[in-house]
Amino acid sequence: MLRIGVVSDSHRRFAYVPDMREKCGRLDWLLHAGDHLSDAPRIAADLGVDPSRVRAVAGNCDFPEMEPDELLLELEQVRILMVHGHRYGVKSGPQRVLYRAQEAGARVAIFGHSHVSFLEEVGGVLLLNPGSLSLPRRPGDLPSCAVLELAGGEVRARLQILGEDSI
User: Fold this and answer.
1) Secondary structure of residue 96 in the 3-state scheme
2) How many Cβ atoms from other residues are within 10 Å of residue 88's Cβ?
3) What's the CA gap between 160 and 16, in Å, rounded?
4) How close are the terminal C-alpha atoms of the chain, in Å?
5) Model confidence over 93-103: pLDDT tens digits?
6) Which residues are CB-contacts of 74 (< 8 A; sequence separation ≥ 6)?
7) Pick from 93, 13, 5: which is nearest to 49 by CA?
8) Tell me, what's the pLDDT at 167?
9) Cis before residue 94, ω within 30 degrees of 0?
10) Chain-wide mean pLDDT for the chain?
11) How far lies 76's CA from each of 19, 24, 55, 65, 150, in Å?
12) 138-144: which pairs have CB atoms within 8 A and are 24 or more residues apart?
């Protein structure tokens, strides 16, 4: 089974990465859905993820590093679309990301931007927003990430709240 850590919106803040390492366990890959994609190598190193297994997309705060703003990956026979979400209006809902994922033949669509975690399967596509690793949007929310597990074409995912002792 391939275990993938998924983060977004880290904004150069790393305080919750040790908690992520503790709560998520061993990770084979790290995917960063933008807003400070340059944080991805440091987060991966802290999590013990090989640098060759790190992928990131640019978000609206990633100036001047605005490439790539979309990635299509194929891991364990599963096609994954990854975008930040600002170009798809995700603060109003994930519909446009869903349509793009269906168009691309993706089984999983990863996005960020809203700083609000989201996990739902719609029309055969698993929509996954890990929330923000550093700056949750809603009052009372805590930083979060996600773990995506892939095996032989099968997909499982869970959101992980950080900064809280009992989950």
Assistant:
1) helix
2) 21
3) 11
4) 23
5) 999 999 999 99
6) 80
7) 5
8) 39
9) no
10) 94
11) 27, 20, 16, 29, 6
12) 141/116, 143/16, 144/117
Total Cβ atoms within 10 A of residue 64: 6
Query: Residue 54 is encoded by which pair of tokens?
Result: 């790190």
- Sequential DSSP letters for 112-142: -SSSS-EEEEETTEEEEE---SS--SSTT--
CA pair distance 31, 147, nearest whole angstrom: 10
Q: What single-letter DSSP state applies at residue 2?
A: E
Strands in the chain per DSSP E? 2-7, 29-32, 54-56, 70-75, 78-83, 108-110, 118-122, 125-129, 144-151, 154-161
CB 24 within 8 A of CB 75: no
User: Of residues 73 and 167, which shows the higher confidence score?
Assistant: 73
Q: Is the CB of residue 57 less than 8 Å from the CB of residue 82?
A: yes
* Amino acid in position 2: L
Q: Name the nearest CA neighbour of 107 among 147, 75, 69, 146.
A: 75
Q: What is the pTM of this model?
A: 0.95
Q: Which amino acid is at 18?
A: P
Q: Is 133 exposed, middle or buried (0-12, 13-18, 19+ CB in 10 A)?
A: buried
Closest CA to 2 of 128, 152, 158: 152
